[in-house]
From TrEMBL:
Residues 1-139 form the N-acetyltransferase domain. This is GNAT superfamily N-acetyltransferase. Keywords: Acyltransferase, Transferase. InterPro entries: Acyl_CoA_acyltransferase, GNAT_dom. It comes from Paenibacillus hunanensis. The lineage of its organism: Bacteria, Bacillati, Bacillota, Bacilli, Bacillales.
Length: 139
């Protein structure tokens, strides 16, 4: 498995991973409102890296470099548990340097556990009721 910078040929697969992942794990959101176009809108001005194995994209991370911020990290549900998330997280930290931050929706217990097990600290919970998230930092 390797990581590399995404290219435009990857976008159809990245759009599908983003949609499938959110529909499968964002139980608090209205999945009927999610579309393939969300990926393009939600990654404007971000650097995107993919985890790839045998020509298949397993997941991606989208980084907002000026703020050392990981905006997205998604792994295709069909490839969960294979190490792609770890590899992408390491690549993001390597690209951004430390300290690096991200936001994790408070309802996303699986993701919160994933980050905490890898040394991330939940600093402060922000947002409105029903839309709360943790600001997390890795130093």
């Amino acid at each position: 498995m390797l990581t590399r910078k995404a290219n435009m040929q990857d976008y159809p697969q990245l759009r599908q991973i983003y949609l499938n992942s959110r529909r499968g794990s964002f139980h608090w959101a209205n999945i009927e409102e999610m579309t393939l176009d969300d990926f393009d809108r939600d990654t404007v001005e971000e650097e995107i890296f993919v985890a790839e194995e045998n020509g298949d994209i397993l997941g991606f991370t989208a980084l907002y470099v000026p703020n050392r911020f990981i905006h997205h990290l998604f792994v295709d549900p069909a490839h969960a548990g294979k190490g792609a998330g770890d590899l992408l997280l390491k690549r993001a930290v390597d690209e951004l340097g430390t300290p690096v931050t991200l936001k994790c929706v408070s309802e996303n217990k699986h993701a919160l556990s994933f980050y905490k097990k890898r040394g991330w600290k939940a600093v402060i919970e922000e947002g409105e009721p029903g839309a709360k998230y943790w600001v997390m930092v890795y130093e």
